[in-house]
Amino acid sequence: MDLSAYTTDGFFDEMFAGDGSIRPHYQKLFERLGTLSVDEFKNKQQAVDLLFLRAGVTFTVYSDNQGTERIFPFDLMPRIIPDKEWQFLERGLKQRITALNCFLHDIYHDQKILKDGVIPPSYVLSAKHFRREFVGSDVPRDIYIHICGTDLIRDKDGRYLVLEDNGRCPSGVSYVVENRQAMRRAFPHLFPSAGVKPVENYAEQLLKMLRRIAPHGQDNPTVGVLTPGVYNSAYFEHCFLARQMGVEIVEGRDLLVRDFKVYMRTTKGLRQVDVLYRRIDDDFIDPSVFRPDSLLGVPGLVNAVRAGNLALANSIGTGVADDKVMYYFVPRMIKYYLDQEPILDQVETYLASEDKDRDYILKNLDKLVVKAANEAGGYGMLMGPWAEKEEIEKFRQAIIANPRNFIAQSPISLSRHPTWCQDSQQFEGRHIDFRPYILYGGPDDIDIIPGGLTRVALTRGSLVVNSSQGGGSKDTWVLYGND
Amino acid sequence: MLSRVADSLYWMARSMERADNLARLVEVNLQLLLDFKDLDNVKLKEHWDPVIRSTAEEDLFYELYDEANSTTVTEFMTFNRDNPNSVIGCIMAARENARMVRDQISSELWETLNNLYLFLKSDDARKVFDTGAYEFYDRIKSQSLLFQGLTAATLPRDECYDFLQVGKYLERADKTTRMLDVKYHILLPSPQDVGGAIDTTQWVALLRAASAYDAYHAHYLANIDPSNVADFLIFSETFPRSIRFCAQELDARLHNISGCPQGRYSNEAEKLSGKLLSDLTYSSVEDVFKYGMHEWLDLCQERLNEIGESTYQAYMFQKPLDMAEEIQQQQQQQQ
Amino acid sequence: MKLRVLHRTTYRYARPAYDSFNEVRLQPIEHHWQKRLSYDLRSNPISARGGYLDLYLNAVDVLEYTQPHETLEIEAESTVETTTRTLPGPEDPAGLNDPAYALQLHDFLVDSHYVQLSPDLWRQAVDCLPNGVTDLWQDSVTLSHWIYDHFEYAPGSTHAHTTVNEALSKRQGVCQDFAHVLLGLCRSLKIPARYVSGYFFNEEFDPSQGGSEASHAWVEIFLPTVGWYGIDPTHRRPVDERYISIAVGRDYADIRPVSGTYRGAPERTMEIFVRVSQDLPTNA
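^ Those are the sequences you sent over. The predicted structure of the assembly is below.
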């Protein structure tokens, strides 16, 4: 493989420094790639694609009426993070998840941060996913977000920035493990010499954490993965995790509530469930409390949670932390609850509901990225510099009508990474982001798998990395050392 | 095991077995046609109608097609996705069920099924079919055999396995009755044909459809005799597609699931399967002819359905979740 | 005044209902002007019971009926000791500017499920109070009187899901609608107002004639010097010792006396029997 024609085009490139020299932590990989022919590489790429398709490592796209299953395009060129950088990220992510859990516990109990005026109360009370129904309810070990996927990007100077926190049902971790397995098959000899930390024990750690939150301190709780069902786009992942943990994967219709306890229907009668790793949003989890038209949920489940007979991961009400307006306040939360300076920076953000910010946003719509406060997956977003006039006007009206629902950020020139391009048959720079997965069992019990999902925008110049919009993924190697 | 999982396993096995049998049924009927002389539209219809009827999709067929001939019936029973009882429909259903229980089955088993599904959905399937229907159906059958082999070789002998077997043997017994029934109509010897070449050819075709030709010959030597064929396909104790064999397996698996010894019963399904097995053990082909073969086969299908239904009630039943039925209750405040 | 309340809700289902999960808000609130002497909740069939305090500190009973049943009867019986509070004096709206109120009053100043603030509501409120809000209490009374004077009390003209703007344009409704409209008018002028669910003791009601009384609803206004104070647009008066409050919230959606879901037939009848009496229980 020859990367001599590769150019960084002035972007921060993960593999190459500005002067075109290879960064030290990529050196070994670079040498290894040098011994590989283009045909060999292409063959391996094809073999991996076929493997994913056959094994059904897919997600479902509902662009038409019948969902089609697609593989998440996988690029064989791995992204590498040296140990020093990883340790920094780990510290920053641990700090952040700890603060977020303090925040959630606080707003669902004493609301000190609101009373002290650190966050204006109206922002929390008007958050779409703030669950008034759960104020005053205790959750095991006071943990709200057990599993968090935090999206990180790097700017033009290579500085890591937090882009958003996903504290509801973050998905994608199965790809982290599957990608690694595929890489091991494709390049079996590369790993030992490269010194890459393993990611394969994620499910084991997840199970350990889930068992620890079991109600009444049970030793041997029954754990299940609650899925919306086979038609959910992340169904593969739900199955994958259940299988890896060796627990049942259940749908709402498998469960019923009797006397404030949750049971699953088995061929041998009812069996009580103690812990659910749920991959169904709050809105749908219990029609008797939330949306009555939910087909997926379990009537009475919320009562079982309140009665302390069922632990949910993540807890009900974490969606408020995903609100992009709350994101703005995370540095303040870190300061308020932990009395620390934030380790990780985040993207400079403007709140449309603050008069001064709003004026600035409305004047600079063509320069900013505007995001709806409660959308995910790259939807509800205006990329000002690339948007049509009409779209900008549409957002202008929407912002004026409902300022609480919008934030704006300066566009970040995401870092790039050499990525194999089918069309040009060579490596080209493509923008990437990064989602590590954090398991939170308390402030002193946080596991982050060394690695995560590196998503890559496969279209030239594109900044959109979402799987539903033409993104792909890469294996992410965290090294034992720094080169 | 979750009731829903048991249900999916059962249907996965059933759908797979059904696809296999459909492939056999279409293939053997295409072969049969080669031996007919003077085929006209009427004769073609007479030939295919009972075949369609045996899959219980006659109405759907005539909604979709004007006439029954080799092309339309083959299309309908093989590639038509609107027909849940087409080969592709069954494979899709089997795969959908497998998807729901992926965590319960071996990855080899899943990948085999997924591959067959991807093949059937691809243009390759058409290409193979267009070069030769025989090769095409052969491929389906061999994939199905691979599925059976992997089931035997990669799954632990637990509840999961038992539910797969219950689904498989119920479907197989049912399909054997239907195949016999189809042939019974077609092969009713018309006076001038008795003992003639066509008669024998058709019985041979029937045996081949059931992969029973060799086994039959090992048992009865060269003698192809309708009553022996019926006897073999219904009462053979050792041939794995005979109704009796299926009933034996079914009864054994059902008892395995509950842990109740065979010869007794702990639920309706076991009671019915035990009865069926005992009737098959203490009857002969003469009894079948006396009762009327068509009527006997009909009754047998009904009894198999009842076993399926009571198995469902015993292990898989979930109250229907019609959310039109999820109703809010609240009152207005007045005064 | 010592009052006794019996509140019985009876559901009859066309086919057996099951997996019925319900929240009940029928327990009288403990105030310094209202003492809860007793509270008893019974049901037939017998239910598994749970409970919690919701965000607005209402006591919620959680009832679960998983087995098939053709009728469901939920009966709450309570006794309270009420007193009439001193009427509020003039209240300067500037008193609301204390930042401590931002959290406490937020929910009672903004849109809620049934009370969506609209230009129509604001227009009406401004027309009623052309000089703006100068006295929180008296101005609220003015708004309440306007409703009483211009609305027709018409049972059956609205239902449990009628929103404030529907009621405003129809100019008719029941106590629930009157309360919603008053909430909308107050909130349009930044007067903090919350919905109260409860009962009204009607001395003129003659139990010997049979029939039932009904549950009632009114509004409480937040006054910085005395706290929440009740005002009843349906009867054109401030709340006194004849009122028993059982729950408060942003609007009806927060205080539904019985709410939940069940599985079964959609066809069912609901019968409510309410008796408020000053003496010991009648044989209801």
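Residues 363 and 396 of chain A are 10 Å apart (CA to CA). Chain A touches chain B through 26 residues (CB under 8 Å).

Shout if you want it in another format.
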